[in-house]
Amino acid sequence: MSQPLTGHCHCGAIRAILETSKTAAELPLRACQCGFCRRHGALTTSDPEGFLHIEAAPGSLNRYRFGQRLGDFLLCAECGVYVAATVDGETGLLAVLNVTGVALPGFEGRTPEPMTYDDETPDQKLARRKARWMPAVFVETQPSA
């Protein structure tokens, strides 16, 4: 693995550490076209061969489910930033990271690939997430930002 990419929400209560062998330029950058992601200006990335650590100060995380209610969208309870989305898989937690929400370096100036998932069935949505999202762990602790 190369140097981890790290970022945090606006207030610093939630920290994300992306361990990957890829550079930011090599990682995908996607712009989901759903109302939630557009309203948050979300640009997401993931590396199925990498690993995402999410650290949150106690009580600083809100989970939001919408649409088919298949995953948790993680928002900072302090500053309101959308940090990541997670889903439970057979092998554990899987996630996609909002690089905009955590100001992850290396993605500035890139044009994201627009993505529309409106026509997916719940099974198709879960299969896509299992194929594209990355293993993750969520820990409630004081982030060392």
Automatic annotation (TrEMBL):
Q: Which stretch is the leader sequence?
A: none
* Keyword vocabulary terms for this entry: Metal-binding, Zinc
Q: Tell me the ranges covered by the CENP-V/GFA domain, including all copies.
A: 5-118
UniProt xrefs under InterPro entries: CENP-V/GFA, Mss4-like_sf
Task: Report the SUPFAM superfamilies cross-referenced here.
Answer: Mss4-like
Any single GO molecular-function term of the entry would be:
metal ion binding
Protein family per UniProt: Belongs to the Gfa family.
Q: What is this protein called?
A: Aldehyde-activating protein
